[in-house]
What does this fold into?
Amino acid sequence: MALPSLRSLLARFLLSRLRTARSVARLAYRLHPHKPALIDRRGTLTYAQLQDRVYRLQAWMQAQGVKKGDVVFTWLPETGEQYETRLATFENGTIFASFHKHLPDDAALTTMGRVKPTVFIHDPLLSAPILQAVREQLPGLRMLALGDEYERALAQQTPSAGTADVREDDVFALHMTSGTTGLPKSIGYSNRKYLDSVRLISRAIDFKPPANGPDVNMLGLPLTGPGSGLVLPTLLAGAALVMPEDFRATTLAGLIQKHRVSRAFLSPSAIIDLLDEPTLGQYDLSSLTHVPYGSEMMPAPKIAEAIRRFGPIFQQGYGCLEALPPITWLLPHEHVDAQGQPLGNDILSTVGRVMPGVDVVIRDEQFAPLPLGQMGLITVQTPVRFDGYWLDPEKTSETLRDGWVVMGDLGYFDTAGYLHVLGRSADRVVRNGQALNPREIEEVAHCHPAVKEACLVQHGPAAVLVASLRQSWRNDRGTRALEHDLAEFLVQHLPPEMRPDDVRLVTEIPRSFLNKMLRREVRLMLEAMPPRSSAAHAEPVAGPIATAPQPEVMASAHP
It folds into this structure.
C-alpha cells in the first residue's frame, strides 16, 4: 500500500487537534474560500458562499431564540439546504436531526412529539399531511419552509458566526434509524465520538487528492442515512460535495462524468445498478479513484465484477449507528491479488479484519463467547459506540449489554481473521426444521450470470429464492425457463439441505430509501403471486444453464 501523502499527513495532524464539528467546518471555510464546496440542483457554491448561507441560517435561528442544545429537525429531500442546515447547527451548538423523505406521516408526527424539536425546517410537499397536527401538538415550534420562505429568511439576516460555547462532549446530532421495522429510534452522538470515528477512519484511508483535477466527493447514499459519514471527511479535505437528487444509475454516472467525481460513497445496490446499466459505456467514469461501499452486505461476485470493470478502487467497512465505523475494513488493496485481479469469493464475501482498538466477539444466545469458526451473534466493543437510544432505556438494554453492542447480525471469524457477516438473525429461513442464512444461498445465486439481485425469504413452510434478472437477460428466454435454469444451477452448487424449495423471478426486488432489499416486501410479493400449478413443481430441467463461463461459486453451511 502506498505511503500517505504529505497532504494526508497534514489533514491527520489537524484532525488530531480539532475537537468539534464546528471547528472542522470553520477550518474548511478559512482554508478553501474559493474552492467548490457544494454541488446540487442549484449549481455550485464555493466554501465562502456556503459559509455565508450557513451563517445567515444560524443567525435566523438565533433570532428565533434558539439556544445551544435545542433540537433542529429537517424533513427535506436530498438537497443542499439539508447540508446547510446541518452546518448551521454545528455553528450554534444545536442538535441536528432529520427524517428521510420516505418516512410515513404518522411515524414522523409521533417521532416529533417524542423528541420535541425547537425548529422544523421542512419541504411543504412532504410535511403537508401533518403540518396542522404539528402546530397543534408543538405550539411553540419555529418552522421554516423550503423554497421562497427559506430564501427570504436567509436574505433578511446578516451572516454571523455562532457564539455558543460548543464543547467536544456536547451532543451535536441525533441520528435516526430508518424506521423500516417500526418507529425510528434516535441516537445522540457527541462531537468527540463522531470525530473519533473520523480519526479511526483516517488511520486506514489515505485521503490523498486526485493526481489531476479537483477533489470531488459524491453521495450515492442519502445524507439522512449513511451519507452523513462523508460530511466531515469532505470538509477536512476541502473537497466539493455532489448531492444527487436521486440515486439512479444514469444520474450517478452522469454526475461522475460531469463533475469529474473522484470519490463516491455507494450502496451495494447502486454498484449493482451501475453494472447492470446498458448505457454505462457511454459515460466517462475514469475520474473515480476511491469507492467506499456500505449500508448492507455486498455480493462477492458483483464486487469482483466491479473491480474488473473499474479497477481496484473499492473499499468496505462494517458498522452501524449503534457502533460507528470502522469496526472492520477491507481496503482496496485487500480486494485484489498482486496482479490487480479480484480475490476469491472467500475473501470478497467478508467485511475484512477488525480495526485496532476495536473488539469483536462471536457469542451464543446465552452471550457466551464461541470458538473460532463457529457462527453466532456478532457483538462489538468500540470507543465510538453509542451510549443509548434517546429517551428509550428499554430498547437500549436490548442492544447494549455489558458495554457490548449486539449488532443483530450473525457471523463468524475464519482462521485468517476475516469477519463473515451472514445477515440478520431475524431474516433466517427455516426449511425442513433447519435454519438457513439467506446470504449463503444468495451468494451462490449471484454467481449465475442472469441474476441481478437475489433474496431468500420464508413463504409459509417453504424457503423461496426471489431473484431479479439483469437487463441483458430480460426477454432472452421465457421467465419459467430461466427459473428452471437458476433452480438447476442451485442444485448443482448447493448441498441438498441448503437448496430453496422454489425459485421465482421478478422484474425488480423492492428496496428501501437506503437502497437495501426489503425482505418484508418480497414476502408480500410472493403472497400476491398466483400459486404454482402442479406442473410447475416438476424437478428443474437438466442441461446447460448458461453460455457464459461460470464464476467461482462458494457455499458453506455453519452449525
In short: The domain at 6-296 is CATH 3.40.50.12780 (Rossmann fold). The chain is about 30% helix and 20% strand.
